[in-house]
Each structure stands twice: as structure tokens, then as C-alpha cells.
Amino acid sequence: MSYTPVPESFINQLMLRKIPLRMEFVTSASKLEELPAADVPELAIVGRSNVGKSSLLNFLAGQKQLARVSSTPGRTQLMNVFAAERGVFRLIDLPGYGFAFSPRETQAHWAEAMQLFFEKRSSLLGLLFLMDVRRDVNDEDVSLVQWFLERDLNVLLVLTKCDKFTKAQLGVVIHQRNKQLGLPPGMVVTTSTLQKMGLPEVMSGLAGLLQNEPRRV
Known about the structure:
Layout: H1 8-15, E1 23-29, E2 42-47, H2 53-61, E3 79-84, E4 89-93, H3 104-120, E5 124-132, H4 139-150, E6 154-160, H5 167-181, E7 188-190, H6 199-210
């Protein structure tokens, strides 16, 4: 299957974009084989359960119900695929890692399914790694981000729920997270879906991720 890269003109527009994306739900999949053909660039959305992945998707799309928002950790256990800008690229919302309310065998299944997805999905260029700004980084977070980077997947750290922090406080947190997770400079953005904060920064981050070349897998 041929791979259609994102046009440079689109990348340039996305860098400066301040309005939501046109997005639509495509499908849900429980394993790699059920996903659409790997024929356009894709970005994954990764984070702990209840970190705000569905809220961020709705924020990016300017919709309230594009992605289901649940207060119960672990409710989303499928890979949910969304087409952006009429299929120029896709966002794939993944099950939260470390979720608490799923049987142990389900967690084991997802660990295996996610490893296959990240290692074998040829159209995957990078990922948005969501983290609650109020929560400290732990060893699992560090190991996971380094695992992504070792597989040539660029990581944009999206800090959520930032409306309670001042700009000075956020500046300190951004510096800390860059250092703790071993990310290159400029790969951290701050957001609050409640206060509609951070949309242009996330758009610019998406543009940066979509500039990457397809991996050989």
C-alpha cells in the first residue's frame, strides 16, 4: 500500500493554526490487523487512564461528543481511530496504560497489542504523550517514553489540566519534565480543555510530528 505524506503546505498552515481540526470517527480496533490500511500518516495519543485523552480529542476537534469522556479509569480499551482534515492524517486514541479496573488478563493482552502496534505500524510517525501536570513523573513514565524514542517515534509531551498553574510555575514544570523524560527542547506543551488553553501550541506540535519521515518496520 502506498503511503501518502502530508503536503508541506498543510504542515505550514498547521504550524500557525488557531482553530480546531475537522475530525471524524473512523473505527475502533482491538488488534493491529483491524486497523485501516497504513496509507496516511498517523499519530497516537498515549497516557494514563483518566488523564484527559478523550477531552483533548474533543478539544482538538471543537466538539463535545467526538470522543466519549469517562470518569472511570480504563473505560476505553480499544484503539479508536479518527480522521483529521478529511483524511490528511489520523489520530489514534489508545487505551490508558496503568488502568485499574480491568482484569489482569486484559492488561496483559493490551501490553502485547500495544507493543505490536508501536513496533509494526509503518504509518505511525510519533505520539502525543499526555500527563496530568499535577502528577510527578515515575519510573514507568520514563521507561515508556525512552522505549518510544528508541523506536524512532518522536514524542510530544502534552501536559493537561494546567489552568490552576501560573505561567512561571508552568515554566518550571516544563523544564523539569523535559529533563526527567529525556525529551528534546520544545517538545512539551501545556493545555487546559476546561479553559480552552493551548490549542495553537498543540497544533504546532502536531505539525512538527507530521514532518517526520516514515519508519522502516
